[in-house]
Inverse folding.
């Protein structure tokens, strides 16, 4: 065991001496390892971070929420018939009430009509292309809206179509500067004045497509007085949240039945609405992530192959340069296995240097994305060890032939070599 650690220490020292003595040659040879490990670990890290963010979104929105509207989020493998989806009738408050009355396993049902071309004004400040969400009761329960200032819309305000509004965080900051109290103030949009009753916490855009930071939330019936809510230009979304512990698929089946009866869809005819779930998006993204993962490993594998040839070249040159030293070692009793292990470990150390450099670049970019762009990217311990393991594997692969050739040198011939 002592002999092993002595050989290991010697190999590490020799690897760094090689790096110091032939900086350019070694750097170019290790660059392939660095790029390969960077490609593989960066792809794994970004994909893991995206999956974590998706899981957080699903935990916030709930995996037990159904979104019903004209448009299916995903195709079924056939042609996406947008012209048929566009002509479908929109969801209505009457359908909300029908589901509430006929589906017992529902925790909340609501309706949201979205318009992304609203211009919001306050005094001389004006914001364009703001998302307006005209909603019925329980929208905050289905979407888990958090309030930073004031309160959410009351049931009486929603049912009565009052001109009350909750502002998104970015809308509040841009209109009021973040210093003025917005509560009780009036903002204008859709040709009407709305009284500000609350401000939402900063949230960003979620998987369901709601961008609350750049939005205003107000009563559906207030929007119905100025907008043609039955127009094909709008697609009201009916959101159904299943009760805790209830089978979402069973709730989906019951909701489908209620809507088909309400819309008088005959047996055998296809639905004239689409029921969507976040799990559909998650499953499709997992397929895309799997493809990206394969591409990352393929590109990284090519770079690692180039790097492996580079390290093998270094080790062949090193064996030739140290042939007399190898002969002397074997002449005084060094075993073939000791010589083989020495050069093999040296190749592994060189490969690890390149691999660690690639991992460090990934860590640096992760920090930049996390703190500079507010996109949380974390290099997991498992991905770190994958990078280390792959580096060791490439080192062994690249160093095994030079190490074997060194261990088989005849000591007499080696000592006499120039």
């Amino acid at each position: 065991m002592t002999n092993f650690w002595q050989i290991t220490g010697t190999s590490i020292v020799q690897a760094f001496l090689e790096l110091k003595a032939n900086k350019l040659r070694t750097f170019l040879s290790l660059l392939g390892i660095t790029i390969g490990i960077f490609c593989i670990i960066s792809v794994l890290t970004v994909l893991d971070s995206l999956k974590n963010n998706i899981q957080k979104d699903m935990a916030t929105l709930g995996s037990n929420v159904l979104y019903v509207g004209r448009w299916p989020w995903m195709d079924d493998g056939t042609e996406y018939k947008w012209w048929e989806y566009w002509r479908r009738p929109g969801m209505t408050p009457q359908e909300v009430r029908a589901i509430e009355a006929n589906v017992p396993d529902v925790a909340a049902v609501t309706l949201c009509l979205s318009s992304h071309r609203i211009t919001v004004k306050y005094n001389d400040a004006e914001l364009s292309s703001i998302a307006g969400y005209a909603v019925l009761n329980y929208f905050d329960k289905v979407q888990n809206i958090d309030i930073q200032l004031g309160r959410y819309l009351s049931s009486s305000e929603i049912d009565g179509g009052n001109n009350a509004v909750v502002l998104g965080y970015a809308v509040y900051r841009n209109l009021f500067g973040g210093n003025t109290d917005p509560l009780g103030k009036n903002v204008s949009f859709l040709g009407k004045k709305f009284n500000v009753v609350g401000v939402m916490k900063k949230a960003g855009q979620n998987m369901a497509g709601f961008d609350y930071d750049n939005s205003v939330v107000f009563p559906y019936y207030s929007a119905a007085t100025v907008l043609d809510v039955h127009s094909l230009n709008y697609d009201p979304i009916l959101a159904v949240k299943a009760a805790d512990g209830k089978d979402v698929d069973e709730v989906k089946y019951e909701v489908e039945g209620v809507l088909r009866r309400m819309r008088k869809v005959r047996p055998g005819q296809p639905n004239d609405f689409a029921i969507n779930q976040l799990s559909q998006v998650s499953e499709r993204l997992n397929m895309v992530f799997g493809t990206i993962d394969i591409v990352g490993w393929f590109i990284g594998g090519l770079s690692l192959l180039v790097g492996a040839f580079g390290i093998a070249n270094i080790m062949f040159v090193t064996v030739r340069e140290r042939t007399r030293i190898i002969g002397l070692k074997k002449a005084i009793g060094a075993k073939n296995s000791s010589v083989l292990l020495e050069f093999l470990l040296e190749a592994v150390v060189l490969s690890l240097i390149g691999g660690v450099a690639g991992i460090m670049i990934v860590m640096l970019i992760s920090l930049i994305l996390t703190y500079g762009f507010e996109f949380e990217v974390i290099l997991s311990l498992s991905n770190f060890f994958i990078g280390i393991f792959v580096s060791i594997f490439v080192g062994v692969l690249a160093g095994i032939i030079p190490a074997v050739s060194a261990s088989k040198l005849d000591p007499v011939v080696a000592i006499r070599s120039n």
